[in-house]
Amino acid sequence: MTLIEGHKPITPADGIPVWDVDPYDEAILANPDAYYAKLRELGPVVYIPRYSILAVGQYASAHKLFTNHENFISSRGVGLNDFALEEPWRPPSIILEVDPPDHTRTRRIMAKALSPKVVKSLADMFRAEAEIIVDDLLRESSFEAVTGLAERFPVTVFPKAVGMRDVHHRHLVDYGSCVFNAMGPDNALRRQALERNAIIGPWIMAACARDRLTDDGLGAMIYAEADAGTITEAEAAMLVRSFLSAGVDTTVTGIGNALWCLANNPAEWDRLRADITLARPAIEETLRFTSPVHTFGRTAARDTEIAGYPVEEGSKIICVLGAANSDPEKWGDPGTFRIDRRPLGHMAFGAGIHGCVGQNIARGEIEAILSVMAERVARIEPAGDAVWRPNNAIHALDQLPLKFIPN
Amino acid sequence: MVKVTYIAHDGTETTLDGAEGDSVMATAISAGLDGIVGECGGSMMCATCHCYVDDAWSDRTGPRKDGEDDMLDCAADDVKDTSRLSCQIKLTAELDGLVVHLPSSQL
C-alpha cells in the first residue's frame, strides 16, 4: 500500500463533501478565517483529497470527535503520520500520543504537578517577574511585543517553575514550535522544523536531565515519581521534556494573541482595567477568539462514524479547533471579541481526556501579565502592523509592534 | 430528560432538566447557574465544579474517578466524603431526581 503523509489513503463515504484545499498552505495558516468558515459551511465532516484526510470544523462534531477517545485515538499520532504504519519522527510522547490505560498513569502524574494548588504557589513569582517586564516596557517608546513580552515572560518564569539551571531563550521557544510544525504534512515548515530540532533537541535533552534541575521545581516532582517507582527514570525525563514542548511556545502564543486582541479592542481593555475580575474570562475569550493551537489530529481506531457518515479504520481526521471556536452555531457572534463572554467549552485547550494538562499554569501566567498591565498601562497602542507566523498547528504572531501608554 | 436539583450554599434550590450523557457541571453551566464555574470545561484539570452529592444519592453517583481525588485536593471549600467534581458525574435515567449541594466558593 502506498501511504499518503505516512497514513493509509481512504475512500470517503458517500455524501461526505470533498474540498480540494491545502489547510497547511502558508497563506491559510497566516489568515485562516475564510478557511474555517468554508470548512464549517461544507458540513460536519469534509474530505481533503490532497492529504486523504477528513477534517472536522463544526463545533458539535469537533467536540464529539475529541471527547470520543475510544474510537478516535491518539496513540497513532496526532499529526498526519500513522504511527501504526510508519516510524514516527521522534519516540512517541507518553502523554500526548498514547491512549488509556497508559495515558491515565502519566496524565495523573502531570495533572498533579500542574494542579491549581501548585500554580497558586507560583503566583507571587509570576507577578514579580511580570512587574519587572511591564515596567521595562513602559519606559520604551515602542517595542516588539512577541520577543519583548510574549516570549520574554514565559522564558523567564517557566524554566524557574520547572527548576531548570540552563536557559536558552531561542531554543526554549523554538522547541515547541518545531514539535507542533511536525504535526503537519511533509511541507517546508515541517522539514525546517525537523532540521532545526536536530540542533535544539539535544540541548533540551541535556537541560532536562535530573542533575540539571533544582530539587524544588516541577521537574523534581516528576523525577520523584521515578524514585517512587510509578514511572521509569527514562519516562520521567520524557515527561519533563514535555513541559517544554507543550508549555513554552503555546503560552508565548497565548500572551501574544491576548496583547493583539486587547490592542485592537481598546474598549475591552478599558473594561478590564475597570474590573480586574474580568482577567480570567478575558483569557478564555482570547483563547476562543484566536485558537493558539489551531489543529490537532486523531486516528480512527476502528470502522466508526462522524455525524452519521461512515469513517473507515485508519482514517486520519484533523480536528480544526480554530473553526470550532469560531462556529456561529455555538457562539452566536464569534467574530466579536468580548472579554465577559465566558466561553465555557471552547476547544483551545482541546477537550476530553487529552485536554491540555498545563492549562492552569497557562492561565496563571497570562493572568499575571494582564493583572500587572491593568494596573499600570492606560492604553495599548499598535505601533506597526501585526504579522502572523505560519505553523502547522499553532496560530502565533511573528511580529507585534506595540506602545504602552502609562497611567 | 433527567432532573437535577442544585442547592446553593445559601439554601436556594434550582431544579434543571439535563440530557442523558451530559454532566452535572455542563447542565448547570448551560442554564447559567451560579455556584459552578467549570473553568477547564470538564477535562478534570481544575476543581471549580466541586459539589457535594446528597447522601441519598451518593451510592448511585458511584465512586470518584481516577485522578479526581488529586483535583478535589485543590478545591476552595472543604472536601467531604460526598465531594465530587460535577463534570465527572454523567447523567443517566437512574439519576433522575439527583440532588447536589454546592460549596460556599469555587475559586
TrEMBL record, chain A:
Keyword Heme recorded: yes
Top enzyme class: oxidoreductase
The organism's place on the tree of life at top rank: Bacteria
Keyword Iron among record annotations: yes
PANTHER family referenced in this protein's UniProt entry, alphabetically: CYTOCHROME P450 YJIB-RELATED, P450, PUTATIVE (EUROFUNG)-RELATED
Sequence similarity: Belongs to the cytochrome P450 family.
This protein's name: Cytochrome P450 107B1
Organism the protein comes from: Flavimaricola marinus
From TrEMBL, chain B:
Any one GO MF annotation of this record: 2 iron, 2 sulfur cluster binding
One BP term from GO: P450-containing electron transport chain
InterPro entries from the UniProt entry: 2Fe-2S_ferredoxin-like_sf, 2Fe-2S_ferredoxin-type, Adrenodoxin-like, Adrenodoxin_Fe-S_BS, Beta-grasp_dom_sf
GO annotation, cellular component aspect: cytosol
Domain 2Fe-2S ferredoxin-type positions: 2-106
Pfam families to which the protein is assigned, alphabetical: Fer2
Key word Iron-sulfur present: yes
Cofactor: [2Fe-2S] cluster
Keywords from the UniProt entry: 2Fe-2S, Iron, Iron-sulfur, Metal-binding
Family classification: Belongs to the adrenodoxin/putidaredoxin family.
PANTHER family in the cross-refs: FERREDOXIN-2, MITOCHONDRIAL (PTHR23426:SF65), FERREDOXIN/ADRENODOXIN (PTHR23426)
The protein's name in its UniProt record: Putidaredoxin
